[in-house]
Design goal:
By secondary structure, the chain is mainly alpha-helical. It has one domain: Chitosanase, subunit A, domain 1 (Up-down Bundle), CATH 1.20.141. The chain is built from ten helices and three strands. A three-stranded antiparallel beta sheet has the order 1-2-3. β2 and β3 form a beta hairpin. α7 crosses α9 and α9 packs antiparallel against α10. The longest helix has 23 residues. The chain starts with a helix and ends in a 7-residue tail after the last helix.
Length: about 200
C-alpha cells in the first residue's frame, strides 16, 4: 500500500513484507460481511482486545491494574482482576465507541479513532480528529466535526490522524519503554484502516 510507505509511521522497523503479513492477518480476523461492508463495533472491539490482552499490573504503567485494556485508573470502583470479557466489551461500547460517535464517522476511520480513544483517551481522540479536519478542537465530536470528516479523502484522514497519534506517543515520558509496542499497534491499526479505505465505495 502506498500509505504504508509514506504515512509518517516508523515503518522501517518492521519492513514492507512484514507489514503485508500483518495486514493480511488483521483483515482475515474480520468476518466476511465486515470485510465487504462497514466497520461495526462488534468487529472493531475484537481487534482492540487482541492488542490489549488479559490481566496486567505493571508498576510503570500509570493506568495501574488492567484487564482487557480496562484500567483501574479509569474505573476505580471496578474489580479489574475479575472483569469479564463481556463486561469489558460493554464498557468499550458505552465509554469509548459511543463517546467518539464512531458509528457516524467514515467507516475506514472508525477503528483508528476508537483505538485512540481506548489507548490514548477519548478527549485526545476527539481533538486529534478535529485538528485533522480543521474544526475547533473542543474535544466533543458533533455534527460539524462529523460533516467535515466526510469532506476529506479517507486515506488523508488516516494518514494525518496516525501521524498525530505517533507524535503524541513520542512526547510521553515512557516512550523509551513502551514506544515499540505503541508503534506496532498504531501501524497495525493504520494498515487495517487503509484496507477499508481502498475498498470500492459501494462495498465500504
Amino acid at each position: 500500500m502506498e500509505y504504508a510507505q509514506s504515512g509518517g509511521l516508523p515503518v522501517s522497523r518492521f519492513g514492507l513484507n512484514r507489514m503485508k503479513r500483518i495486514s493480511l492477518k488483521l483483515t482475515t480476523r474480520l468476518d466476511e460481511s465486515t470485510r465487504w461492508g462497514e466497520v461495526k463495533f462488534d468487529e472493531a472491539v475484537e481487534i482492540i482486545l487482541v492488542h490489549e490482552g488479559g490481566y496486567v499490573f505493571d508498576a510503570q504503567d500509570s493506568g495501574g491494574e488492567t484487564r482487557y485494556g480496562i484500567s483501574k485508573r479509569s474505573f476505580p470502583k471496578l474489580d479489574i482482576k475479575n472483569l469479564t470479557k463481556e463486561k469489558a466489551k460493554e464498557l468499550y461500547r458505552s465509554c469509548y465507541w459511543h463517546s467518539v460517535r464512531a458509528d457516524r464517522l467514515p467507516s475506514s476511520l472508525r477503528l483508528m479513532v476508537f483505538d485512540c480513544a481506548v489507548n490514548q483517551g477519548v478527549s485526545l481522540a476527539s481533538k486529534i480528529l478535529q485538528r485533522v479536519v480543521g474544526v475547533q478542537a473542543d474535544g466533543i465530536i458533533g455534527p460539524v466535526t462529523i460533516g467535515a470528516c466526510h469532506g476529506i479523502s479517507d486515506m488523508n484522514l488516516i494518514d494525518e490522524y496516525a501521524s498525530m497519534r505517533l507524535a503524541h506517543y513520542q512526547n510521553l515520558p515512557h516512550w523509551s519503554r513502551f514506544g515499540k509496542g505503541w508503534s506496532k499497534r498504531l501501524l497495525e491499526v493504520s494498515l487495517t484502516c487503509a484496507f477499508f479505505a481502498e475498498l470500492p465505495k459501494e462495498l465500504s
